[in-house]
Amino acid sequence: MQSSGNTILITGGGSGIGAALAHEFHAAGNQVIIAGRRQAALDAVVADHPGMAALTLDMEDPAAIVAFAQKLVKDFPALDAVLLNAGIMVAEDKIDLAIAEATVATNLLGPIRLAHALLPHLEAQAASTILTVSSGLAFVPLAATPTYSATKAAIHGWSLAMREQLRATRVEVVEIVPPGVQTDLMPGHAENDQMMPLADFIAETMALLRQQPTPAEIHVERVKFLSEATQRGEFAQVFGMLNGAH
DSSP class of residue 244? Predict the structure, then answer.
């Protein structure tokens, strides 16, 4: 992926990691379109970035995703990158079916549906990129958020498989693997000093994305405690530490 000159859609671009990445891509000379459910949040980001565009999108709504994709490629025919960042993370006490279904719809089905809707357009470009966002919890799950952890493990597997399927095309697949980051993804995360400061995460992630060729997976150093636990032979130990085992 080239670091500038792209036309990139960033879902979940109204806050947190999405808004911060939108700022960086915009500053690097890319046409950035942010999408999210909250118009006011999107407008606030765009107000600080002349030339950035915003469109509302509910990642849980299959019909809305199709209509959104059609409008997007019509309004931005140069679109050549999609960052599938939108997601929710909600604690579950045992099985909370409403939370589980909303999490699967937003974090897994939403990105798959949007990628499906945009793939024919992306394949027609000279070069294009699908960027997914998984999590360190894709590799070692957090017991308090079982469905979130499961959706991120699924995004990791989907990214691996789609990268292989698209190997002979002009579409590359890049997976960003965040650790816990100081955002408002869950109550208390932004103030939690155990989380990685957002600015540090963004700086390290953008530096990795600027490498040529772009790494297939973007692992900042902070996430490797989780993402490399199995290959170190430490999965059980890390799982216990993460989940409060003594």
Answer: T
